[in-house]
Amino acid sequence: MQIITAAPAIQRAGQHAVAAPKSSLTGEVFGKLINLSGRRRFTSQRVVLYAVLALKGKAGALEVSREALSIFEKAHADLMRGNSEMPGIFCPELQQAYVTDGGDRAIREFIELARQTQDTIGNKVRGSAELLNRLVESATPLLGTLNGITQLYEDLARRQAQQAKKQLVGVISEIESIAKEARIVLFNAQIAAARAQSSGREFSVVTKELSNITARIDELAREALRSSAH
Question: Are 30 and 156 contacting, i.e. CB atoms less than 8 angstroms apart?
């Protein structure tokens, strides 16, 4: 059920052009945004952990760290620019978190530092330990930033759910109003058919159809009411 339409796209955030949303924001879309934002949290820690293990000589650790960084970078790019399934930055709160408060800059700086660290470890270049120490030190504040942004997506999702419920209540009210009007029309049609007697037989068929329609409208109202309770 599509509920709220994304706000006009922000023109640019950091180095990423922000794409206009391709669809309305639904609960499913918010779920994908939250999952993708959460993915950045654990992949950022994986990048650092396996970089540490790689410097200590653990076989395959550097490849794991690079793979985690690739996943991390793609998740961030999708959240910034959007893709076929979700929008990029679509509201002032996200602009504040990513642009004004420097979330995007901090994330891109982490990506660049991680890549440099991985390259120096892979090439066995002097200074690997120093870069790794900087990467480890950056991991905690970065995690705080990522936690805050993920929480923001969750707050926006809750707001959308509340709005969806309010709109559903409005739909139920409209259905009930239509049902009331339909019952009045049906009642008047039944009186007219009765007065017409034998000449009103064909008209009676119409009243029967009207009765079926009002019954279906009542059922729709009950279904909508049950949905709003969940």
Answer: yes
The token duo for 221 is 């109202």
H-helix or E-strand spanning residue 52 = helix 27-55
What are the tens digits of pLDDT across the range 5-48? 344 333 444 444 444 444 578 888 899 999 999 999 999 999 99
CB of 206 within 8 A of CB of 189? yes
Give the model confidence (pLDDT) of 124-134 as tens digits: 888 899 999 99
Distances (CA, A) of 8 to 3, 22, 24, 87, 146: 16, 11, 12, 11, 24
CATH fold of 12-162 reads Four Helix Bundle (Hemerythrin (Met), subunit A) (1.20.120)
The pair phi, psi for residue 22, each rounded to 5°, is: -90, -10
d(CA 183, CA 94): 48
CA distance linking residue 227 with residue 221, whole number of Å: 10
Report which residue type is found at 127.
Answer: G
DSSP symbol at 8: P
CB-facing half-sphere around the CA of 206: CA atoms within 13 A: 15
Interatomic CA distance for residues 145 and 149, integer angstroms: 6
Statement: the pTM of the whole predicted model exceeds 0.85: no
Token pair for 183 = 């019952």
* Cβ neighbours of 171 (radius 10 Å): 16
pLDDT tens-digit series, residues 204-228 = 656 666 666 666 666 666 666 565 5
Provide the phi-psi class of 124: left if phi over 0, else alpha when psi is between -120 and 50, else beta: left
